[in-house]
Amino acid sequence: MTPTIVLRSGRLVMVTGSSGGSRIITTVAETILNVFAFGMNAQQAVDAPRIHMQWLPDEIQYESGALSQAQISALGANGYALHRGDSWGSAQVIVVDPKTGRLSGGTDRRRPSGAAVGY
Description:
The protein is an alpha+beta fold. The protein folds into 2 domains: about 1-50 and about 85-119, Gamma-glutamyltranspeptidase, small (S) subunit (Glutamine Phosphoribosylpyrophosphate, subunit 1, domain 1, 4-Layer Sandwich), CATH 3.60.20; about 50-85, no CATH class. The chain has helices at about 25-35, 40-45, 70-75; strands spanning about 5-10, 10-15, 50-55, 60, 80-85, 90-95, 105. β3 and β4 (about 60) form a beta hairpin.
């Protein structure tokens, strides 16, 4: 499940994790990037379409909406095999607002049995 604690200057800013076999690390990394590099809130970070690459199978796997047609064409032209597949993972995220300390959660709608709950 790769439970992950993200600190900034020694202070808690995010906790996250996901199920998903070989795609766990990708899901967790994308969720962290979505929050800190792309400015998404917890739920947006979890909802964003995912992309995954691993050696075997040697292909880029992506969810619907993760890549534009131009990106798909460019990757294909550069020799990458691509496969659009079903969604994966079940990320759960809690982000701490650095100014207020308020917690916000995001639960993966790909697996509706989860919940991000705080107090």
